[in-house]
Amino acid sequence: MNLHALRLFYSVAETGSVTQAAKQLNISQPAVTSQIKKLEREIDCTLFVPKGRGILLTQSGAELAKQAKRLFSLEKEIELYVEQLREGSIGKLRIAATFLPANYLLPRWLSRYKKLYPGTDVEISTINYQKAIDQLVNYEADIGFIGGITEFSPLLKGELLFEDDMLFVVNQNHKFASQHVALEEIVKEPFIFREEGSFSRKKLISLCNLHNAGKPNMGVQINGLNETIRTVMEGYGVTFVSALEVNEYIARGDIAKVHVDKAVIKNPISLCVRTEDHLSPSALNFIQMIDSTDEC
Fold it and tell me: Coiled coil located at which positions (predicted)?
């Protein structure tokens, strides 16, 4: 069916006049009449009959006008939907994130983003850095926030967003609480180590090796952050963590920082996207929102 002719027919049906429809559509009356005649021949139905100086819809014409109204109303809805997709005000945003940004940065960003774009569905996967990279490479995520590394596959490009300080923390009643201590001294204390392969564990060992401070005294290994902090709060050992993970505990006086000479270690957090990819409007809006604020 010729949709252009159907649109002209519908305009005539709505206005009740070829003259008014032609004026509304900014085309000539003969062009409107010609297209409607072609439509009648195409569908083998008479759509209008003369009535005085005007025209009257036939029963077939009235039924077709109802369906045309549905069609062109849907067309407007689709146009609006496409415009919203283009603007990123609707759609879906998939984020892959490692533990630190997922727990300490994304909640604030997500809250702000959803207030700006309530129609966009957001899905966040909190996973280790290798799985986050895999999701990006395999088009299972649109953007990634990855902590602990700054070098990525050639398939990805990373932008450093933030560098978080790594801290030694102890119970508030520990002898080293809020004190300045040599690295060689603190490594003699029993440490709560995180799991093999964790950023904090690798950086602690590298720091000790760099300064020939000796091997840290591993008192216990705990895989979870919350469990690690709770153990320190209960009075056991020292742990080496990212500041974002413990700032609120330090502020409340639950645990205390130890000022360790030579211990200047940063935990980088990067925004990652595919190198040769065109970002979706939703992803671009999220990134622009982050760039527009100085907060991390």
Answer: none
Domains 3-87 and 90-162+268-291 share a fold: no
How many whole angstroms separate alpha carbon 178 and alpha carbon 270? 30
Output the average pLDDT for the chain: 91
CB 127 within 8 A of CB 99: no
pLDDT-based confidence at 296, cuts 50/70/90? low
| pLDDT > 70 fraction of the chain, expressed in percent and rounded | 99
Q: What's the whole-model pTM score?
A: 0.70
Best CA proximity match to 147, nearest among 207, 83, 104: 104
- Give the closest residue to 261 by CA, choosing from 181, 168, 207: 181
CATH architecture under which domain 90-162+268-291 falls: 3-Layer(aba) Sandwich (3.40)
CATH class of the domain defined by 166-265: alpha beta
